[in-house]
Amino acid sequence: MSTTNPLSMGRSLDERLLQALTDRVEAAQTTARAMPKLTDEVPGMTLGDGYAVQLALRDRWLATGRRQVGWKAGLTSRAKMDQMGVRVPTVGFLLADMARPESSAVRTDDLVHPRVECEIGFVLKAPLAGPDVTREQVLEATDFIVPAIEVIDSRYAGFKFDLPSVVADNSSSARYVTGGQPCGPHDLDLSSLGVVLERNGEPQAIAATAAVMGHPADAVALVAQVLHALGEALPAGSFVMSGGITEAFAVKAGDFVCARFQSLGSVGLRFV
Ligand code: 0L1
Ligand code: MG
After folding, report:
1. pLDDT tens-place string over residues 147-198
2. In the CATH hierarchy, which top-level class contains the domain 6-271?
3. d(Cα 103, Cα 9) in Å, to the nearest integer?
4. Which residue among 179, 203, 209, 263 has the highest number of C-beta atoms inside a 10 angstrom radius?
């Protein structure tokens, strides 16, 4: 399979089309109505165009008073990367109002295709910026790590999308919750922590953190590199979700999901 250069941010959209596509993503996310993938209308859309839409959406929402707390790595599993033809994660922005309290109820009628995956969250005490941020720099810049569940929600009809479209849809970002016991980045071996993701008390997936690009801090380093290509950076205080450790699985109203992390405790959510 041919691979797309993930750091090539070439753009082709004029301003009118950029705003029209941003309108479409904003409406789909706000009303929880599925949309056709954007490349059905603009087949020549590039990855850079997808990010232009994502950042235009982010800027619209910041202008309304919503607050950005950080970024996430998406498509981190080998299987997803092979499927999408990439070797570097995508990124998506995280807003404060996407967060949900531990054990709280998440409404499913606000979402199109809700699915959950468990992740390691990094809270930074120092900025990370530049084209070649390393794992060691990520660990040095990290204040603490925390277990998290991400609720992803592709807004594309029939769950059909390609790389520019999924990036425009903010890498399917929707909700997230953190919990468990925060821990210093050097207090455990982050490459080999086990995690069990349960639904309604039954294990759905069992995995280890090495599934995230070999080491979750490597995924955060790649987030910093992609952000550099976009003219963005990770300021001190950023919250960064490093990508799914297990595969994502669909949830519906009535489900309770719990991720049990080795050494880091557990984090859960209900769906109503
Ligand atoms: O967090 C993620 O890995 C984003 C996945 C984007 C594609 C999808 O919705 O499956
Ligand atoms: Mg994720």
Report:
1. 999 999 999 999 899 999 999 999 999 999 999 999 999 999 999 999 999 9
2. alpha beta
3. 39
4. 209
* 115 CA distance to ligand 1 middle (Å): 9
The whole-number average pLDDT for the span 221-227 is 96
Residue ranges covered by each domain of the chain: 6-271
For 146-159, the pLDDT digits (tens) are 999 999 999 999 98
Distance 171 CA to ligand 1 centre (A): 6
Q: Of the candidates 2, 32, 4, 17, which has an alpha carbon nearest to the alpha carbon of residue 164?
A: 4
135/229 Cα distance (integer angstroms): 18
Residue of 47, 113, 171, 249 to mutate, ligand 1, most atoms within 8 A of C-beta:
171
Measured at the CA of 32, the angle between CA 28 and CA 38, to 5 degrees, comes to: 30
For the entire predicted model, the pTM comes to 0.96
